[in-house]
Design brief:
- The structure is a single chain.
- The chain is an alpha/beta fold.
- The protein folds into 2 domains: about 5-140 and about 255-300, Rossmann fold; about 140-255, Rossmann fold (3-Layer(aba) Sandwich), CATH 3.40.50.460.
- Helix content is about 40%, strand content about 20%.
- It is built from 11 helices and 11 strands.
- The strands form 2 sheets. The chain has a 7-stranded mixed β-sheet with strand order 3-2-1-4-5-10-11, with helices on both faces.
- A hairpin with a 2-residue loop joins strand 10 (about 285-290) and strand 11.
- The chain binds adenosine-5'-diphosphate (ADP) and 6-O-phosphono-beta-D-fructofuranose (F6P).
- The site of 6-O-phosphono-beta-D-fructofuranose (F6P) has 9 residues, from loops.
């Protein structure tokens, strides 16, 4: 039987996943592997929802958001019984290694497959950039740019009406997206879960600024901080400035990947195949000091990534 590599996308989709699917497929074919695309995350492994990918199956996807392999959450995969079933399916299909794309949860599934003897490599892909073992996750740049584009539009109307716009961005429990987007749009305030926020200090700052020539405000609010509409109402109460709340939502997960996402995805996908081909297993691919590297999945999951408090301070100090 021809040796095969499987590939799946799991958890939330992220722009750039398709570029990685393409890279894995083409790199694996070049090394003599058959490539099995597994659909809808770990569900596809359990249900046999798979298709063979040849070099042309991944044509014309490098520029597309979402994932052509579909993605899903699969709760039963947390149970040993189902993990064992997936290992057996891989063996049946001749799949020696699987490249999985997603976040920490997805990597735990990969560790389970690795323990069963299937060489598994994780590629970090989430718009949240909240995976601690890597500086960068695929999809982050595109999501930041999408959010910035939307907030620039909101600023036009906020400025015309002398209003304040509180914009809730995604990020799950992390504030990376909010911080970077907030800096990029010149937000007067950035609310993130990692840093205690003083709404009274923000209100005072807004009133101070209002004494000058600026009458409109943008506040970026990370979803992990709670209810942005309550926050907006409180801000109106404290400042007397009419404040509107906008939740950007899933629009942040879509769209054509940026150059950065396409290229990092391509490099990580290629690297993942190199790892499998050299016999490695249970590794996560990441970015460290701008270069691609790999780390053991368990070590990677146990790492910490301190929040960029310096960037946060800079963003606040220059926004007035
Ligand atoms: P992410 O990969 O973005 O962190 P989730 O936490 O939803 O997203 O995990 C994605 C999928 O990974 C889950 O639906 C499940 O199939 C699998 N998974 C999550 N946690 C585990 C676990 N502890 N053991 C095995 N598989 C897991
Ligand atoms: O992890 C990506 C992400 O978009 C988070 O930013 C957000 O909290 C979550 O997924 C939303 O998940 P769902 O689409 O399942 O509501």
């Amino acid at each position: 039987m021809q040796k095969a590599i499987g590939i799946l996308t799991s958890g939330g989709d992220a722009p750039g996943m398709n570029a990685a699917v393409r890279a894995v497929t083409r790199a694996a074919i070049s090394r003599g592997y058959k490539v099995i695309g597994v659909q809808r995350g770990y569900n596809g492994l359990l249900d046999g929802e798979t298709l063979e990918l040849d070099e042309r199956s991944v044509s014309n996807i490098i520029q597309r958001g979402g994932t052509v392999l579909y993605t899903a959450r699969c709760d039963e995969f947390k149970e040993k019984e189902y993990q064992q079933k997936a290992v057996e399916k891989c063996i049946e299909m001749g799949v020696e290694g699987v490249v999985v794309m997603g976040g920490d949860g997805t990597f735990k599934g990969a560790a389970a497959l690795s323990a069963g003897g299937i060489r598994c490599i994780g590629i970090p892909a989430t718009i949240d950039n909240d995976i601690v073992c890597t500086e960068y996750t695929i999809g982050f740049d595109t999501a930041m740019n999408t959010a910035v584009e939307m907030i620039d539009k909101l600023r036009d109307t906020a400025q015309s009406h002398d209003k304040c716009s509180v914009v809730e961005v995604m990020g799950r429990n992390a504030g990376w997206l909010a911080l970077n987007v907030g800096l990029a749009v010149g937000a007067t305030g950035i609310v993130v879960p990692e840093i205690k926020f003083d709404i009274n200090a923000l209100a005072a700052k807004m009133k101070r600024i209002q004494q000058g020539r600026k009458q409109h405000f943008i506040i970026v609010f990370a979803e992990g901080c709670g209810n942005s509409s309550e926050f907006a109402a409180k801000l109106t109460e404290l400042t007397g400035i009419e404040t509107r709340d906008t939740v950007l939502g899933h629009v942040q997960r879509g769209g054509n990947p940026t150059v950065r996402d396409r290229n990092i995805a391509s490099e990580m996908g290629y690297y993942a195949v190199e790892l499998i081909d050299s016999g490695k297993s249970n590794r996560v691919v990441g970015l460290k000091n701008g270069s691609v590297f790999d780390v053991d999945i368990y070590e990677g999951l146990a790492m910490t990534k301190p929040f960029d408090e310096r960037l946060y301070r800079i963003a606040n100090e220059i926004a007035f």
